[in-house]
Design a protein that fits this description.
Blueprint (H helix, E strand, L loop, with lengths): L8 H12 L3 H14 L4 E7 L5 E6 L9 H4 L26 H7 L2 E7 L6 E7 L2 E8 L4 E7 L6 H5 L4 H18 L4 E6 L2 E5 L6 H9 L1 H6 E8 L2 E8 L11 E5 L2 E3 L2 H11 L11 E6 L5 E2 L10 E2 L2 H22 L4 H8 L3 H6 L1 H10 L1 H11 L7 H13 L1 H12 L7 E7 L3 E6 L2 E6 H15 L5 E11 L2 H9 L1 H7 L2 E4 L4 E8 L7 H10 L7 H14 L10 H13 L13 E4 L1 H7 L5
Parallel strand pairs: 1-7, 11-13
Antiparallel strand pairs: 1-2, 2-6, 3-4, 3-6, 4-5, 7-8, 9-10, 10-13, 11-12, 14-15, 16-17, 17-18, 18-22, 19-21, 20-21
Helix pairs in contact: 1-4, 2-6, 6-7, 9-10, 11-13, 13-22, 15-19, 17-21, 17-22, 19-21, 20-21
This protein binds adenosine-5'-diphosphate and magnesium ion.
The site of adenosine-5'-diphosphate (ADP) has 23 residues, from helix 2 and helix 4.
């Protein structure tokens, strides 16, 4: 068997096909690209069994001439380019002329297509590159392609497919990118008969974002736009401090093509500069438009990568667009009303234990705090399976948490001090025994939250006053469904509320001050390497820490006082959980020395 042989045509055809057609999502990508290139205004995508059983893509585009249908299935047959020179000016999604050919080689394809100006259309079926029939037929304008039994003749490839739900998630991901890239096209996408996305096609990018990510993200995003050197960047980016998405929360389109260049994502991230904490991912949907000749899309058969003639200019325009929005927003964010309410809606147990939290609560929204108390005795309205975990935890918490409360209440009061004020809404200046203490408000709050969360051994649920509905990615949904028990034991109460929508009615009490949607998102995002209650808890702690006040947040006197009081009285560590210093002290002696009063 060690002799080398030439592969037969049928074998190398399949290998070539495999380069582009790796899985159901690649079929969907190629077919939708064809519909877009045909000028469709409405595209429907329906998959069954994660696309492994069937994929149907139908459009109302211009259709194919009857005499060209046979040619469309041939290798390197395309209507989009004709010369090598055209490769330098690609304005269509497709140009290789091999998608239909490659798909047919590994599945059974049925196409119905009709051009408006012809009385009838064409119906064709090709299976494993074998044309079964091409016949005239009475069909509506546009094109529909049904692909079934993907990889029926490649059992080895089929073995590499993920579970149907995971393949469906990959299809959802690619469809979501098309929705964002083409807000003027209405997409209707179903998986096993259930509608996952239905975009309005009203041409408004915000509607597209709403359709894919839900209200929370679309409301928290800011429009940005910048143009220079013939390059225009426009789209929506998350405002600093807004709920963050996991890594898929970034989409970049180049001349309307979804691209996966990591360097583009890095450019966007770096435009956020210091406003991003390490490991945080901003949300962004950015469309980069530049002359066709300034970008090479013929880099990889999957057409997901591009090369810029002048990457530095592209980076400059991205930075200008994104950082402009960051600056504007940074100045505007001053403790929004709902944030104050969120701080008050904190776990009652935590609030009772902590001077610091009650400081916020009493000062701003004691009513809300009271209401939270009432809700806590009720069983949340949730399906039985989820409610079970909630109740079980309620019973489990008392001994440890009482201990923690006692320990915290017994903390000695700090030595007398005087609050001087703040510097740049970031540092709190305090006088104590003649020394000047400079406290980083974000780091101090983060340290306090962290200590309290780490001390609470048994997670407790905190019912939310109003349940929050979040939209997950298909991948997150699969993950949550499969690991729901771990999330329940971490303190979440979540239930399905639509295809990808979930209703959160309770969150881990220890992290109740964090935004519920961001909390769940963060817990889901942190689970990539595995799952378990401990992991989920770790993520919850991290998320809660993100709920800490930020540098630039303007705190009122009451809040400043309670933060300083808690920090000083609890003798907390001098660094935040990430190792940055919380406090720096200029001693009386140092001051006297610098004014040459002493030597
Ligand atoms: N949905 C569609 N509507 C109209 N024409 C289509 C459609 N799908 C495919 N075609 C035609 O079939 C040709 C071959 O498609 P494909 O194999 O995907 O190659 P490419 O898109 O790179 O040209 C296209 O160039 C186009 O003319
Ligand atoms: Mg194509």
């Amino acid at each position: 068997m060690d002799r080398i042989r030439l592969l037969s045509k049928t074998v190398y055809d399949k290998i070539a096909a495999g380069e582009v057609i790796e899985r159901p999502a690649s079929v969907v990508k190629e077919l939708v690209e064809n519909s877009i290139d045909a000028g469709a205004r409405a595209i429907s995508v329906a998959i069954t069994g994660g696309g492994l059983k069937e994929i149907r893509v139908a459009d109302n585009g211009r259709g194919i001439y009857p005499e060209d249908v046979k040619l469309a299935f041939e290798k390197h047959a395309t209507s989009k380019i004709s010369t090598a020179g055209d490769l330098g000016f690609i304005g269509t999604q497709g140009f290789r002329g091999e998608a239909l050919y490659s798909i047919c080689a590994v599945s059974s394809v049925e196409m119905k297509t009709k051009r408006r100006e012809f009385p009838e259309g064409t119906h064709a079926r090709v299976t494993g590159s074998n044309t079964e029939f091409i016949i005239p037929a009475g069909i509506p304008d546009g094109t529909s392609v049904a692909v079934s039994d993907l990889f029926f003749n490649l059992p080895a490839r089929r073995k590499f497919m993920k579970k149907e739900s995971a393949e469906a998630a990959l299809v959802s991901d690619i469809v979501s990118r098309f929705i964002l890239a083409y807000p003027e096209i209405s997409f209707h996408y179903t998986s096993d008969g259930k509608t996952v996305y239905h975009s309005p096609g009203d041409g408004d990018l915000r509607s597209a974002i709403y359709c894919v990510y839900g209200a929370g993200v679309s409301d928290a995003a800011a429009y940005v736009e910048h143009e220079a050197n013939g390059i225009k960047v426009s789209g929506f980016v998350s405002k600093p401090g807004a709920p963050l998405k996991e890594r898929r929360g970034g989409s970049v389109f180049v001349n309307r093509r979804y691209v996966k260049n990591g360097s583009l994502h890095d450019m966007v991230r770096s435009a956020y500069g210091e406003t991003l904490v390490k490991g945080e991912n901003p949300f962004f949907v950015l469309d980069i438009r530049l002359p066709l000749s300034a970008v090479d899309v013929n880099v990889h058969p999957n057409k997901l990568q591009v090369r810029f003639l002048d990457p530095a200019s592209v980076e400059y325009v991205i930075k200008e667009a994104v950082s402009g929005a960051c600056g504007e927003v940074r100045g505007a964010v001053v403790f929004p009303a709902e944030d104050i309410k969120r701080r008050a809606d904190i776990s009652v147990r935590r609030a009772e234990q902590s001077e610091f939290f009650s400081g916020f609560g009493n000062a701003t929204a004691s009513g809300a705090l009271k209401e939270t108390k009432l809700r806590e005795t009720q069983t949340p309205a949730a399906p039985e399976t989820y409610a079970r975990g909630f109740v079980a935890r309620e019973n489990a918490i008392s001994p440890e948490s009482t201990q923690t409360a006692a320990a915290s209440e017994n903390a000695p009061p700090p030595a007398p001090y005087r609050l001087i004020g703040t510097l740049g809404n970031a540092y709190i200046l305090v006088e104590q025994a003649g020394d000047l203490l400079i406290i980083d408000q974000h780091a101090a709050h983060e340290r306090l939250l962290y200590e309290r969360l780490i001390c609470a051994d048994a997670p407790v649920s905190q019912a939310l006053l109003e349940p929050v509905v979040v939209k997950l990615s298909h991948e997150q949904k699969n993950f949550l469904d499969e690991n729901i028990e771990a999330f329940i034991s971490a303190g979440f109460c979540v239930e399905p509320f639509g295809a990808l929508d979930y209703k959160i009615s309770a969150v881990p009490a220890a992290a109740a001050s964090a935004d519920p949607a961001a909390l769940l998102n963060c817990a889901l995002g942190a689970q990539k390497g595995g799952v378990g209650a401990a992991l989920t808890r770790g993520a919850v702690i991290k998320a809660a820490c993100r709920g800490a006040v930020k540098a630039g947040d303007r705190l009122n006197d009451e809040e400043l006082k309670s933060l300083v009081e808690s920090y000083l009285s609890e003798g907390e560590a001098p660094t935040c959980p990430h190792g940055r210093p919380v406090i720096t002290v200029i001693t009386k002696k140092q001051l006297e020395k610098s004014f040459k009063r002493t030597v």
